Fold this sequence. Notes:
Helices cover 53% and strands 14% of the residues of chain A. Chain A is an alpha/beta fold. Chain A folds into 3 domains: 22-174 and 259-288, no CATH class; 182-240, no CATH class; 306-513, 3-Layer(aba) Sandwich (Rossmann fold), CATH 3.40.50. Chain A has a 6-stranded mixed beta sheet with strand order 8-9-10-6-11-12, sandwiched between helices. In chain A, helix 5 (77-100) packs antiparallel against helix 11. The longest helix of chain A is centred in the middle third of the chain and has 55 residues, at 234-288. Chain A starts with 21 loop residues before the first helix and ends with a helix. Chain B is an alpha/beta fold. In chain B, helix 15 (386-406) links the parallel strand 8 and strand 9 (412-417). The longest helix of chain B has 27 residues, at 104-130. At the A-B interface, helix 9, strand 1, strand 2, strand 3 and helix 11 of A face helix 6, strand 1, strand 2, helix 9 and helix 10 of B.
Amino acid sequence: MIKHARLLYSGEIxxxxxxxxxxxxxxxxxxxxxxxxxxxxxxNIIENCRRILSMPITVxxxxxxxxxxxxxxxEHPKAVTSIYNSISESLTNIANFKYNxxxxxxxxxxxxxxxxQVALLELAVQGFEALKSNVSKYYERFSSQNFKSFCDDxxxxxxxxxxxxxxxxxxxVDSLSLGSEIQISATIGEGLKMRHFLVNNLxxxxxxxxxxxxxxxxQTVIKKDELSIPHSETKLLxxxxxxxxxxxxxxxxxxxxxxxxxxxxLTDLRDQLAFYYxxxxxxxxxxxxxxxxxxxxxxxxxxxxILADGLYDIYYAVTDLKAPVSSSxxxxxxxxxxxxxxxxxxxxxxxxxxxxxxxxxxSGLFVPAKSMSTGIFKGIYxxxxxxxxxxxDSSHLEDELGALSKIIDVMETHSLILLNEAFASPSExxxxxxAGDVMRAFTNNQITCFFVTHIYSFAKxxxxxxxxxxxxxxxxxxxxxxxxxEMVYGEPGETGYGMEIYKDILGSILKKET
Amino acid sequence: xxxxxxxxILTSYExxxxxxxxxxxxxxxxxxxxxxxxxxxGNADIEPYFVELSDSLETTKFRNxxxxxxxxxxxxxxxxEFVEGVHKAEQYKxxxxxxxxxxxxxxxxxxxxxxxYYTAMETLCIKFNETTPKAIGLYYMHRFFYxxxxxxxxxxxxxxxxxxxxxxxxxxxxxxxxxxxxxxxxEKDENDFTYRLRNAYHHGHADKxxxxxxxxxxxxxxxxxxxxxxxxxxxxKNRLLYRDMETFLALNRKVVSDDVLEIxxxxxxxxxxxxxxxxxxxKGFPFSMPKISKDKELYLGDCYDVSLAITxxxxxxxxxxxxVKSNYEKAMIVIGPEKSGKTxxxxxxxxxxxxxxxxxxxxxxxxxxxxxNRIFTVFGVEAGDKDHQERAIRSELMLLKKSFAEMNDxxxxxxxxxxxxxxxxxxxxxMNRSLLLExxxxxxIVFYITDTPEMSGNSDQYVTLQATVVGDGSNRRTYxxxxxxxxxxxxxxxxxxxxxxxxxxxxxxxxxxxxxDLY
Lengths: 514, 519
């Protein structure tokens, strides 16, 4: 059995559970653009990066282990990509073989089944040889436990005698169908039925040399303790033939089990490496546009906080190919951060940069910021109001509260939730009541919440009532009153959902009338 | 003999079979639920047990303990294996009975039946020594089996059966097959060809245990020609053994005792319900073990009608409701427009009471129920035309009279559903009021469903549950029924309530998810 490579997890946990609603989170945070950059046209890399990002780590030691692996991969990109490509090629060869011989795979002929499984196993062994040769070129360069252990295990445990054994079987397997002798033993079981069938031996056809001829003549004489099953009994011979078929299929199955072990190892290794390959691609893309990145620190993993300097939206970085505006988070004790301000001021972008950074941080990646220190959240959730459904009618509120209820169904204490323009109801009084209850319950359960809201009265009330645990941010403006798109701390401002537009459109007319 | 349904009284399957189903079975949709439970468990013969209501709080707790114990996967596995073992023994006995009188295979099936039966019982006793169940019913069962195994005659019978069986276990052979020859030998060969392959792969550390292939090469219970051929050879060689087996078994043809079969059926009742609950939970429908108490406080969180749930497809969405009543309140009055879910709630409430009384998990996320030993339902009769209205009212009143006659004490629950619909409005209101007063006077638990809004209002003795509609003017039914005065309802309140998003609910849900002790 080949030892499972531990490139992603040290072993304290075998794998993290995927977070709920990841598809929705991915849509809200626009992860697809980031994943496309990570994948660089390789679907397998995209899918595996998506899978890993959907499983943010909650165990501090595992998180540091993953970070070490990512750092190592970024330092040795050629080694990682070369090993990955070698495995991909082997697995493609296996897939092609399976496709070309698909009719043989379904064959009822047991000789066909053995021949097919041995050929597959030979291909897997060849792939393994290629992998070993590749790893031996690079293994001394790696410094992380992740890659060093993988290389050591692979090079130490792989036994070439098995390789020879398989090649030998492959050479002789065709002669099986020319004639073979199989010996099967069994015992008497319940109701005198046969049970515990065991294949004792299988001998392939051999060209008869002089020595074999003598041996063969000897074999035709029935031994003392043996009884010949009569040829005249057709039904008996049919039963014998069935028994022989089952025996041969049992051997084919033994080959298949070993092939499955190899194939599972290679596939699993390729999928683990795919994540590191994705990190290398993303890092290269960001480095090209000279944006800052850093590995976040987790000094107080059990606490709920996010502190960051120069935090920016990686989505804009990889789509616009230039450095976006950044913001900073400095309030450590804020369990609720309200984000208010005019439309198109960068609130949603800021919320997205927060969510993406936390996901990347808890996946062991670097983050789009100059520096970041954060706690480890048990869950990460998003509830973004969709532009097209921002209508103040019953079905919208019903949909939104339905979605929130599903989140609450699984939410645990010490989670992070990002709310974007939630709880808009036809009546502000009702919105305030709903939002108030929700925030109070979040605060009571150590849920960290970032809430982009237009409900000014709610924001003001909450900020005044609990200034210690509530922070407020809004889109900054420069001296000329122009938007800077940077989020800065302050008191809740009139969001002016309509007033800004009202002034924009009617401002000049109103002045004239005045 | 012991019973898993009552701590002191024996429950006879035959007696229960002749017992009539209570009338509330039909009203509460229990027939359909019970059929589903039995069908899912492979149509086992357990239906009569569903009419065996508990007669005391102790009996309910006695059953409840067994049910709780079966939630433990280790205990459930031990019990399931025992039940399967006994069924296997029964099957082997049936094979024996189906065989021709002098077939040697016949006697071997009977011997196997004895072996399988006592092995199952012994295994259960050994495993219960290691993982001792806390439920008193299972403890009694353990003792009962232990005593059976230690009766002198049984000990002798087991010893002889296992001796004979050991001789058969030694019979092994090998068959060599090649292109034009097949030979048979009684010599044993333990060499495993696949070991060479596995050992090469595992660097010389492969598991040395032989890897048998147990596929049904000859799948029927009868012997194939090859098996017959082999069997004849062994019989020829072991004539004395075969004769000894026949002599011994001719005197021991009865294998599974009727008492043990009765216990197995009772265990199957519990296992069937456990399987049903597991299946429903997988589909997203909550079940919980109720806290049954002597006081009158009642809490059902997220209860629902199981008879409706079992008809749901994946796309259907269940509406869950809460029913809450304090220790001092006696009645719950449910009002609301037609087809707003009132009767469904009545069924859900009744089902919780029925399953709770039986000591089983109930269809609700959280449940606390006052103990009752009688359940009454009086469901309004469809009146149709005027000629039938009087007959309908008479029929309802007769049913009520019968129920009143059976109310011996205060430990009852009654579900009255839309009564006197055939009467003129004022008459209906007067009758309903009078009936409610009478029921309150008897201090039971009253669930009163009516479409007469004048029955609503809160008092020290009863609470009103109101079926809600969407507040957007469409009057669309939400099927949510909440404890609230109608005038207090607002548009968003009903949605917030539907999704349980007020402070208390969110706080409770997050703490519950996080495993924080709520009490």
